Automatic annotation (TrEMBL), chain A:
The keyword Transmembrane does not apply. Belongs to the GRAS family. It holds the Pfam family GRAS. Keywords: Transcription, Transcription regulation. Residues 238-270 are annotated as: Leucine repeat II (LRII). PROSITE patterns: GRAS. A motif (LXXLL motif) lies at residues 288-292. This is DELLA protein DWARF8. A motif (VHIID) lies at residues 190-194. Residues 462-493 have a biased composition (Low complexity). Residues 159-224 are annotated as: VHIID. It comes from Lolium multiflorum. Residues 453-501 are annotated as: Disordered. Residues 371-446 are annotated as: SAW.
TrEMBL record, chain B:
Residues 39-79 form the F-box domain. SUPFAM superfamilies: F-box domain. InterPro entries: F-box-like_dom_sf (IPR036047), F-box_dom (IPR001810), SNE/GID2 (IPR044184). It comes from Lolium multiflorum (Italian ryegrass). GO terms for biological process: gibberellic acid mediated signaling pathway; regulation of gibberellic acid mediated signaling pathway. This is F-box domain-containing protein. Gene3D superfamilies: 1.20.1280.50. It holds the Pfam family F-box-like. The lineage of its organism: Eukaryota, Viridiplantae, Streptophyta, Embryophyta, Tracheophyta. GO terms for cellular component: SCF ubiquitin ligase complex.
């Protein structure tokens, strides 16, 4: 129907190379197109879209029926859309083969096709970004002038809009929080390391949930990693202050530490200052894929995962895009990305309100995937199956996410979006998808039991627990209120909001 | 006075007492009046649905004062998404946290109300069903994010380049979407 513009008809003529039904529900990308080895310079095995081969859409008589008009227009758009996609993929094939001339020609055709399409919705909306990205790649040398790195403030601004416009980041935050909350059960000193703190939007909900947990809140520390701020500002500190404010108001003893780093591999374990006896959670939302690299380059991912394992975390929460945008071949990557972002844009479309900022957020990713190569490319999304292997190799075992997380995710997604989105559970991981196409996956991990980095950590922890719960007169407890330890409130509030960088 | 909510500001109590007296004086002698006692009125208003309760604030100043009591909104909220065993089970801790985040009235206005509307037919939606589509813990989580945003500029930096945005993380609840 109107909300699902990608139901292009199966065109029997285009059976070669690409499946014309670009339904986002079609999970695997189309079969690799036939390498163009024939003289007719076609790097991509799509049928030649001669005007004559297009179905004759002009009605013999001008139709007076508005519905028929609309249907006709829609059919025209569909055909134009298919043609545009074929052109883009042709162009990408030419780029992969290094044929600049053909690629430019295809790109010009694509731009012309775009003009005929509405770019406000449907395939046009996402195609315009891919077309722009291809232009950028063709007409600026891809390796020497990569897309200028996003200013941190711009990135944060767009991130916030993306957070609001669609449920993906909310799903990430809420699911990770649920896993962290469960992992912290029974712990009195907890430490969360956030690989990308941004505005700290994930943490108010965790602070509130800890405040209300039976037995009272633990002492919570958050270490937020983020890019260095421009001179004159201290974004990490600002976020820390706001989180401390919130924690103070709900009476959770809290302290925040910011770690400024441009990339995660700059962060060493000692910077995180993990205290003995505290339970550690490491949270990575859309960060791990940035640490991957091409085969012949050294990938920082292993070092970072080792660092994580060395912290002996109670839980590592990982949310990643469910797509394979790290394929070595450009055309493969391009095709995969086209499918993926079509689904994402479709879901944005269906949400009703336009969100240009959310689109701009996605457009950056698209540009990076299409234009950048080698060390410049950061958006190296890989599917969950690959992450499982990688994390297992790093010595981590999967922690199933549990029914509460699934229930909460479904509730949240049900609220945030009417129809189309769905949360699926598989092997203890949750994926959020649009019309059957998985888009984001969430999973949780812990250090394998065999890897006991610091065997003594458990003992002080246990005695800590038993100390506090049994005695009412502990120095930590204020006013020796109730032995059920429910309200470790008033006296210690002054210590909340402690913050140091 | 047994009030479930956080201790009312002395001013509010005084205000209500004054209004009570005025109403009694104006109402003349005779039969009991719903407005005779603010606490009884509060009990009654606490049984209304969200829209009616909001409308009740416009009836007269006494009703406006009473319907501003957070306890009244607490009853309403917990009736919809509170623990199945009943509002009392939510406990003092929840009340403290909700008060710190902005109060039940605000929770309803910003979060529960729009969510229940969105889930359809807030009044008609059976309580059991509502609990399956929306839980108190989820509502509180969303509410805490809103509270956090209100603490100051969520646009990627507090002071400095003013990309201050009004708190908007709950706006998604108000967007018209077909939830069928």
């Amino acid at each position: 129907m109107g909300t699902f513009p990608f139901q292009w008809p199966m065109d029997p003529a285009s059976s070669a190379g690409i499946d014309a039904s670009f339904l986002p529900s079609l999970l695997p990308p189309p079969a690799a197109p036939a390498a163009g080895s024939d003289d007719s310079v076609s790097y991509y095995g799509a049928p030649q879209m001669h005007p004559a081969s297009l179905p004759d859409l002009a009605a013999p008589f001008p139709s007076r029926d508005a519905a028929a008009d609309l249907a006709m227009r829609r059919a025209e758009e569909e055909v134009a859309g298919i043609r545009l996609v074929h052109l883009l993929m042709s162009c990408a094939g030419a780029v992969e083969a290094g044929d600049h001339a053909l690629a430019s020609a295809q790109l010009a055709d694509a731009n012309a096709s775009l003009a005929a399409l509405s770019t406000a919705s449907g395939i046009g909306r996402v195609a315009v970004h891919f077309t722009d990205a291809l232009s950028r790649r063709l007409f600026f040398s891809p390796t020497s002038t990569p897309q200028p790195p996003a200013a941190a403030t711009d990135a944060a601004f767009l991130y916030h809009h993306f957070y609001e416009a669609c449920p993906y980041l909310k799903f990430a935050h809420f699911t990770a929080n649920q896993a962290i909350l469960e992992a912290f059960h029974g712990c009195d000193a907890v430490h969360v390391v956030d690989f990308s703190i941004m505005q700290g939007l994930q943490w108010p909900a965790l602070i509130q949930a800890l405040a209300l947990r039976p037995g009272g809140p633990p002492f919570l520390r958050i270490t937020g990693i983020g890019p260095p701020s421009p001179p004159g500002r201290d974004d990490l500190r600002d976020v820390g202050l706001r989180l401390a404010d919130l924690a103070r108001s709900v009476r959770v003893r809290f302290s925040f530490r910011g770690v400024a780093a441009n990339t995660l591999d700059e962060v060493q374990p000692w910077m995180l200052q993990v205290s003995p006896g505290e339970a550690v959670a490491v949270n990575s939302v859309l960060q791990l894929h940035r640490l991957l690299a091409d085969h012949h380059h050294h990938a920082p991912i292993d070092a970072v995962l080792d660092c994580v394992a060395s912290l002996n975390p109670k839980i590592l929460t990982v949310v990643e895009q469910e797509a394979d945008h790290n394929k070595p071949g450009f055309l493969d990557r391009f095709t995969e990305a086209l499918f993926y972002y079509s689904a994402v844009f479709d879901s944005l479309d269906a949400s009703g309100t336009a969100s240009p900022m959310a689109e701009a957020y996605l457009q950056r990713e698209i540009c990076d995937i299409v234009c950048n190569d080698g060390p410049a490319r950061a958006e190296r999304h890989e599917p969950l199956s690959r992450w499982r292997d990688r994390l297992a190799r790093a010595g981590l075992t999967a922690v199933p996410l549990g029914p509460s997380a699934l229930r909460q995710a479904r509730m949240l997604v049900g609220l945030a979006s009417g129809e189309g989105h769905s949360v699926e559970e598989a092997d203890g991981c949750l994926t959020l998808g649009w019309h059957g196409r998985p888009l984001f996956s969430a999973s949780a991990w812990q250090a394998s039991p065999a890897v006991a980095v610091d065997g003594e950590e458990d003992n002080p922890h246990n005695s800590n627990t038993s100390n506090v719960s049994s005695s009412g007169g502990d120095s930590n407890n204020s006013a020796g209120s109730s032995s059920n330890g429910k309200s470790r409130s008033s006296g210690v509030v002054g210590a909340a909001g402690n913050m140091f960088l | 006075m047994c009030m479930g909510g956080p201790p009312a500001l002395p001013r509010q109590e005084e205000n209500e007492a004054v209004l009570e007296v005025r109403v009694q004086l104006l109402g003349g002698g005779g039969a009991h009046n719903i407005n005779d006692n603010a606490d009884i009125l509060s009990e009654i208003l606490a049984r209304l649905d969200g829209r009616s309760l909001a409308a009740a604030a416009g009836v007269c100043r006494l009703w406006a004062a009473v319907s501003r009591r957070d306890a009244v909104w607490e009853e309403l909220c917990l009736r919809h998404v509170g623990p199945a065993s009943g509002p009392a089970a939510a406990g003092h801790a929840t009340r403290t946290v909700v008060a710190a985040l902005g109060g039940y009235r605000r929770l309803y206005r910003l979060c529960l109300g729009p969510a229940l509307d969105r889930l359809g037919r807030a009044g008609a939606l059976a309580h059991a069903q509502a609990r399956e589509r929306l839980s108190l813990s989820l509502s509180l989580s969303l509410f805490s994010i809103d509270c956090y945003e209100r603490l100051g500029g969520a646009g990627g930096g507090g002071a400095g380049a003013g990309r201050q945005q009004p708190p908007s993380s709950l706006l998604f609840l108000c967007k018209p979407v077909d939830v069928s």
